[in-house]
Amino acid sequence: MRPKAEDSLVFIDTGRPVGPATAPVVPEKLGRYKIVHKLGQGAMGIVYRALDPMINREVALKVIPLATEFDADQLEEARAKFFREAEMAGRLNHPHIVTIYDAGEDNGTAYIAMELLRGRHLVEHTSERRLLPVAQALELAARLADALYYAHQRQVIHRDIKPANVMYDARIGQLKLTDFGIARLTDSGRTRTGIVLGTPSFMSPEQLQGRPLTGQSDVFSLGVTLYQLLTARLPFRADSMPALMMKIAMEPHARVRAMRPDLPEGIDELMDRALAKDLSERFYDGAEFAAALRALAMRAGA
């Protein structure tokens, strides 16, 4: 796969199309789906608002141009992996995981039809001026940990947990984790320097090192996400990829209470376990992480 930017796709239904004026022409339809307008774009493709005319249902249609994104010798493997991952993601049925309705291909362009979400991604709450109340941030992280535990029990690892892949509608309290199965598609395409595409700042040490992954890798990435939601900072930052990999693998993160003394006692111990380099010291699974988050949220006044 050819190198791309790090950001994963995020789709936000604001009721109007988004994207630069120079964006490619929007197709009229893909498969049976009628395209309404573009919702968003990222490293792995474009998302459109679309209509399924068979049942008159609006969907978010995530489109990945396999024929242009992958070299000829990788195309068949990428296509098979895409549909295998789409099938696995489609089996997930959880209140905090986006629902997948369908997957298909139209002239070399693969697509996934999923529920159309309203709200905004959690990136909106990673700046100092827009941080969520502490108890709320902890509870949202606990819900995501619940969702991960559910997925991991079904042998599905997300591989790209970060605020940009979480949609939140504060009006109704709806929280949805998106892009299950998409990150694995990048495993078949590494950059020419050998680095897996994705979002390195949120990756676990074992993911950056190309080691076999378990659900504990997602737990680590959720820990990074929570750290950013609480402090508006990433726990590991560097000016180059090698330096970042070294920090994630070897160096401790800054204590969160040193930055925010108002955070509840015990938060640093929780972050230490979530971001542990050694798997034996990290939360074993999402259920254990969720329980610890909710216990801490009670102290924070939830």
3D architecture notes:
The chain is of the alpha+beta class. The chain is 34% helix and 17% strand. The strands form 2 sheets. The protein has a 6-stranded antiparallel beta sheet. Strands 7-8-9 form a 3-stranded antiparallel beta sheet, with helices on one face. Mean pLDDT is 85; it is low at 1-22 and 186-197.
Secondary-structure topology with pairs:
Blueprint: E1 29-30, E2 33-42, E3 45-52, E4 57-64, H1 66-69, H2 72-90, E5 100-106, E6 109-115, E7 120-121, H3 134-153, E8 166-169, E9 174-177, H4 182-185, H5 205-208, H6 215-231, H7 241-250, H8 256-259, H9 267-274, H10 286-299
Antiparallel strand pairs: 1-2, 2-3, 3-4, 4-6, 5-6, 7-8, 8-9
Helix pairs in contact: 3-6, 3-10
Structural features:
302 residues, alpha+beta, Transferase(Phosphotransferase), domain 1
Q: Report how far the terminal alpha carbons are from each other.
A: 45 Å
Write down the overall geometry. globular
Within the CATH hierarchy, at the fold level, what is the topology of the largest domain? Transferase(Phosphotransferase), domain 1
CATH-defined architecture of the largest domain = Orthogonal Bundle
Q: What structural class do the secondary elements suggest? A: alpha+beta
Q: Name the beta content range.
A: 15-25%
| Secondary-structure element series | EEEEHHEEEHEEHHHHHHH
Number of helices: 10
